[in-house]
Write a structure and sequence with these properties.
Elements: E1 10-14, H1 18-29, E2 33-37, H2 41-45, E3 53-54, H3 58-64, E4 67-70, H4 75-83, H5 88-91, E5 97-100, H6 106-118, E6 122-129, H7 132-137, E7 140-145, H8 148-153, H9 155-161, E8 162-169, H10 173-201, H11 206-214, H12 221-231, H13 241-258, H14 263-278, H15 287-294
Parallel strand pairs: 1-2, 1-4, 2-3, 4-5, 5-6, 7-8
Antiparallel strand pairs: 6-7
């Protein structure tokens, strides 16, 4: 199977939200030819200045592209884009490759893979781990399920948008791995949110607490920057609460179907739900603010240190 390089394939990209637009722009800026589509035409038109062609509909994009990537909001959107009357599977040419990057149920990824097989279309679930800044810098982690040969052929493309990519198994394995990763992301953030007011109410000055905590081995790299932003009361969205709330739902429903017990995840989901109901567009780290409020802590708005690169 030939490598998917800038001179061998034309890309189609569906779904140009916060994450999708950044991934598509990196592909364009690194020499890939790309045709873009989003239900919001303005989002697709915004890619034209980076060299994208703009499709009027999914069928037009599907008929033109050798490789189709999508970054969509939920399972329903994936079903609609791919399985609708004028969707990708009906419109794309046999032999087309699909890299579906949305965070959805693993069963949705497996179903799309099998539907693709019946149409002669080769599907990988390419789950994305990382924030919007990581997407801009090409430092995402890709978690991939499906045919290993296609995964290997896609390395030039994957290397454009990610720091590392992992083939983790057959169809559905990429989205499963994403749920595993986001379990640790969400539960870890809740653990930090509980630890901070514990230290504050015991008398440790908040900025010193956050600074020291960020330099200990127990804080995962994904959480370090959240501590620096929390020091400034900055909960503007990099990974919105609404997405974490959705992912918690996927995690817990998948766990239920597998009879896996997740009491800490359930507890984290409850606090996430409280903050999401009030501030759905805040960053998922806003649970720090919620736990401080529940503990009746009033943090000072004084920045600490310099945020790491």
């Amino acid at each position: 199977m030939k490598l998917l390089t800038t001179d061998t394939v034309k890309l189609g990209f569906i779904g140009l939200g916060n994450m999708g637009s950044r991934i598509a722009r990196r592909l364009l800026n690194n020499g890939y030819h790309l045709i873009a589509y989003d239900r919001d035409r303005a989002k697709a038109d915004a890619m034209a200045s980076d060299g994208a062609l703009v499709a009027n509909n999914i069928a037009e994009l599907s008929q033109s592209a050798d490789v189709i990537l999508s970054c969509l909001t939920n399972d329903e959107a994936v079903q609609d884009v791919y399985c609708g009357d004028a969707g990708v599977l009906v419109s794309a040419r046999p032999g087309t490759f699909v890299f579906e990057m949305s965070t959805v149920f693993p069963e949705t990824s497996r179903d799309l893979y099998h539907r693709g097989e019946r149409h002669g279309i080769h599907v990988l679930d390419v789950a994305v781990s990382g924030s919007t800044p990581a997407a801009e810098q090409g430092n995402l982690i890709l978690l991939v399920g499906g045919a290993e040969g296609l995964f290997e052929a896609a390395q030039p493309l994957f290397g454009t948008i990610s720091a590392r990519s992992f083939h983790v198994g057959p169809a559905g394995s990429g989205t499963t791995m994403k749920l595993v990763v986001n379990t640790l992301l969400g539960v870890g953030m809740q653990a930090i949110a509980e630890a901070i007011p514990l230290g504050e109410k015991a008398g440790i000055e908040r900025n010193r607490l956050l600074d020291v905590l960020s330099q200990t081995a127990v804080i995962a790299p994904a959480h370090v920057g959240k501590l620096y932003r929390a020091a400034q009361q900055d909960y503007s969205p990099q990974f919105p609460l609404s997405l974490m709330h959705k992912d918690f739902g996927l995690i817990l429903q998948t766990a239920k179907s597998l009879n896996v017990q997740m009491p800490a995840t359930i507890a984290a989901y409850r606090v996430n739900s409280m903050e999401w109901a009030d501030n759905p567009n805040a960053d998922f780290s806003a649970v720090v603010r919620r736990m401080e409020e529940l503990s009746e802590v009033e943090p000072l708005e004084i920045a600490v240190g310099t945020q790491p690169e």
